[in-house]
Amino acid sequence: MLEKTMLIKMNQQAYGTTRFQILTEDQIQQIYFAALDVLEISGARIFHENALQLFTQSDAVVSDSNRIRIPTAMVEQAIGSCPSKSNLTGRNGRRSIKLQKNEVAFGSGADASFVYDRKSGERRKAALADVEAAAKIVDYLPRLDFCMSHGLVSDAPNAKTYDRHQFLAMVENCTKPLVVTSVDANGLKDQWEMACLIRGGEKEFRLSPLFATFIRSDSPLTINNETADKLLFATEKSIPVVYTPCSIMGVSAPASIAGVLVQTLADALFTVVLCCLKKPGMPLLLGGIQSVCAHDKETVSYGSPELHLTSAAMTEIYKWLGLLSSSPGGCSDAKVVDEQAASESVMSIYNNLMAGTNLIHQVGCLEGGLTGSLSSLVMCDEIIGMVRQIAKGIHVTDDTLALDILKGVGPGGEFLSHDHTFDHWKEWFRPTIIDRSNFEIWSNAGSKTYNDRLEPEVDRILESHAPEPLDENIVQEMKKIINLADNKEV
Amino acid sequence: MMSTRTNQKVNQTAQFSILSEDQKQRIFEGMIATLRDTGVHLHHEKARELLKENGAIVDGVSVRIPQNLVLDALATVPPVTVVQSWDGTRKTLIEKNQVLFGPGPTPPNFTDPHTLERRKYVRADAAMVARICEALPNIGFVQSLGTISDVTVSLADVYEFAEMVQNTTKPILSWSYTRDTCSDIHRIAVAMAGGEDAFKQCPNYVFYGEPISPLLSDFHAMDKAMYCAEHGIPQVYTPCCIGGATVPATHAGQLVCALSESMLGVVVAQLINPGTCVIMGGVQSIMDMQYSVYAYGAPELSLLSAALTEMARYVGLPMFSTAGCTDTKILDPQGAIEAATSVHSAMLSGANFIHDVGYFESGMTGSVLQLVMADEQIGMSHVVARGIEINEETLAIEEICSAGPGGNYFDSEHTKKFTASLWQPTLMDRQSYENWASQGKKTMKDRVIEKTRDIIANFEGPIAKVPQDTKKEIEDILQAAEIREAKKAEAENK
Q1: Which of B304, B401, B433 sits opposite A367 (nearest CB)?
Q2: If you count DSSP H runs as helices and E runs as strands, how many of each does chain A have, helices first?
Q3: I need a labelling partner for A451 at 20 to 30 A (CA). Which of A113, A271, B84, B483 fits?
């Protein structure tokens, strides 16, 4: 036996995770400078009175009564005022998301008009029960980190207050943090009040927000009054906002990918400036859905590789600016859970996760975001697990190099019975619905396809999982807020 | 405005990396130590003698290889190898970061594209697979997806090559049972090239050989590798390492093994013919502990393959990687999930020959349906992997400013120009629900089957271009091989 002297290996650098990068810093800078040019030369429009006043009192140039041109210094001051980290914390305080550079969270979404009815196999309008079922599934699934409304409920008692009902449906059935949409600033206020009830106060909410509000803008470089209302209220109360400018390449944005990035960034930075003028320090998650439209021009693609590319690139840009990011992922243009839904979900999850997008929403969406599918949610949970395994990278240490073990086993030997294998194989990904059995075992078990195995798993979760109940007194208090709104908005 | 930019560093494609320089060096050192201290078992006397003459320590079948032999071999491997199709229309470069996808060899079963049933692979399938590969834009090389069951058993490899080579101009990665059949295949390739000289100028196929993990090369694997080196045939010399079964369960240990096993082939080939092309890599995945199956759909396959590709670049060798395969038994979302995951990883990694596209059931069944589906996934993956071009025109500041807030980009010259370069799906459906429903609510599986059958029915491939003389020559080679094998069988029976 040889005596071993102390082994000292110096100046070693390892990759802690797999690394992925679309743009260099120089390229990001070029896009950033171009976006600043757009804000200086062309600017953006805002119509909201209070917002306009904020700009008028600032160094920005206001012309045509609502067109705002912004000097770079103002933009950079605003960027500097954004917090580098924040969090979202579920109702029981135990499940939270870190919002900070290179931390990734996945969640369901978002407000689909329809859902895929698993019994009839048909598409139908989304109902409150669907949102509840999805929230329950999100509560159960280990790799989903937040819950966003699976569908836009069509059976709420009042069409102007559906957002409060969605909020209650989610918070009752899911202990993970929420991302919500609000009908308007009043809706947001009610949701925030409900969240403060749970959290125990306004300051407590500021410290660990229960939810972020999702604001989508479909007209580039233009903020409408409803959006401005919500942004200003959220800023006042430090409610994290997921700001999502959406554009279609060649329709509402340039058809070149770099051009879309410039416009989206200019759009996002405009919002950063507005929030900073209202009150510095706003936790903003900047996102965007930048995609192509289908040949029939009726639908925006949620599965196109261009969407995955722009999402990853926007994340890199926001990271470089020290801002937080969000993007759609786990979504598809397919109408049912088929090979297309699987392929497109993989691509969006893969690229967003590798890029390090903070909040990846829209998991479980089919048909370009118009149809929600519970089955797709469960499928994506497994996909996220697989991609995370790749993102973990490889550890290179004396133990993992296993040179002595290899020498001991020798050429032609086997490792199956070795302790080293027993110690390490549990680090591998273990599938849930994916099946690796051989042909004989598989055909004896009924030759089931992935879908055949997926559906019973969805049923099993729905039947067996019971989310931790929410304090009944708080539920009653929340219902009072909702009733008040229902009666007021008649 | 004039702009003079300086000091710009640009990603011309996406950058993807699993190992740091230090991590790569440690794995490289692990390979050096393993070949030196543990060595390999080599069941080929001539190869052992050759290694011994050059400084290896030989003891029975055990061969321990000193590091200078490895470094000398790595110093003579070619940076670029060109493979040219027999009709002269297609050149394939084997060089750093040049990516090609293709199917894999030798599953015993095949999914019949008409009945969708699993059945034995037959001779006609080889020609069909080659034609489908020829038709698919994102498939860059050809392997058979099966082992022919309806010819003389010991000549399945030769018939396969004879069928495929006439039906595709993309490079074939052939395999063989023995040096004899390796030589039959080579003679067919020479006939297709139009003679020895033409082949020597530019080879028209690549040979695929496989040592056994861990650290063992049987007689035939090494014999064929030596034949290829002697004849200047570019060759793949790669193991299928099973993490937790034939190699350590830890990925770093698996990479050391895989690298060491290929390196033996590199050393021998370079000693015989310095400058001959040897490609490293192989199937790298884990043993599924629940079913004792070699998991072709595991994310570990993607991770290990991408990491081994980085090791290949580190040592200056081309890489034979794996993707587009699955553990499913039938075309379904599992096959799509597993293929998309490995395809994108392999694409980003920049491996040279990414094989096994179209494998079902852990490599037990070949499926052209899976292949056709993966072709579309490769197209999608490439859009992301090729990254973003950034210049004044693509940044479109003028366009954005002239459109103004909320502006319209419809039908502008800029839009027309760049819309043309957007990716167009052929199997992904982006229609509205109503249009999709009115066309029969087809799933992607339905569309894959339609497209596959359409190729089979309507795509002819290059077979009409094969000269009659060459066809006759191939028939003669097959006949001579039959006579030889019959004699061998007779001798064995006695």
Answers
A1: B433
A2: 18, 20
A3: A113
